[in-house]
Design brief:
alpha/beta; 284 residues; 12 helices
């Protein structure tokens, strides 16, 4: 604005006086006047617009590395360094997440399944190994508990359910959704922790009826279900915590929105930088 003032009125007032008022040297003024204006190309403008759109769609969670991958997937010729500069110019900064905490505890009178997974988080095919867990989400109305079922092959969430209580019914509804959606073959492995809901007789009976083999993590092995725990971390800190959650119904709707975004749009390095749905389509 101060340069613009000089440009507008330099013909009417002596340049020396104006520079003194604006606390500028005459050489700085003439250097600025001789410098050509910087013009932004249509391609750069589209890059800026799309970067901001992707950042907002992720609920301000995309960092420069993932943003660069998303932009390159849309045929923008950008490096990570270029993406960092663009995000800095647009003042787009993702917030860091904190660690996720395990919630479920085992009921010692129930039977515990063997650990068939042994931290094999990368099966070679779809519907070979599923994993599940429960987490808690806070609303102004009270707690909401979320149970999910993930296909470890693509990291896709294939089943989920919410409730105001952490019950066997909750995890059963998530599994029923997953089974009805995928119709997996006999012998699929479902991995969980040793929480009382997963070790309960009704749930074990449900798995047997579906021909699913149960697998449970070892005691104190926090990495035995690390992929699902990372999903919960992303859900909370990249999405849920960024909006006020007034009711359980609102929370459930927001969880549904994130799972849709996660399955369809969120890129995974384990999927060769494809979303879970894209990865499955490419494999089929």
């Amino acid at each position: 604005m101060k340069y613009g003032f000089i440009q507008d009125y330099s013909q009417s007032y002596p340049v020396r006086l104006l520079c003194r008022v604006m606390k500028l040297s005459k050489s700085a003024f003439y250097a600025w006047k001789a410098r050509p204006a910087q013009l932004i190309t249509a391609q750069e403008l589209q890059l800026y617009r799309r970067t901001k759109e992707l950042f907002n769609a992720s609920r301000q969670s995309l960092g420069s590395r993932e943003m660069a991958k998303k932009l390159r997937a849309e045929d923008f010729n950008v490096t990570r360094y270029k993406t960092i500069k663009v995000m800095a110019q647009l003042k787009l900064q993702a917030k860091q997440r904190v660690a996720y905490k395990v919630t479920t505890k085992r009921k010692h009178s129930d039977t515990v399944a063997a650990n068939l997974l042994n931290q094999n988080f990368n099966p070679v095919g779809q519907d070979q190994i599923w994993a599940g867990d429960i987490t808690y989400l806070k609303t102004a109305e009270g707690w909401v508990y979320l149970a999910v079922v993930m296909d470890l092959y693509s990291r896709r969430i294939v089943g989920w359910a919410t409730d105001k209580r952490m019950t066997t019914s909750l995890i059963s509804r998530a599994m029923i959704m997953a089974y009805n959606l995928r119709q997996p073959p006999q012998g699929l492995v479902f991995h969980s922790d040793r929480g009382s809901q997963y070790t309960s007789k009704p749930y074990r009976k449900l798995l047997v009826g579906y021909g699913i083999r149960s697998s449970m993590g070892d005691v104190g092995a926090c990495w035995d279900n690390a992929v699902v725990e990372r999903f919960f971390g992303s859900l909370k800190h990249d999405w849920i915590f960024k909006l006020h959650q007034p009711t359980r119904e609102h929370m459930t709707s927001d969880v549904r929105a994130y799972i849709k975004y996660y399955n369809l749009d969120r890129l995974h390095s384990s999927n060769n930088d494809l979303s879970p749905v894209q990865y499955e389509k490419l494999a089929n």
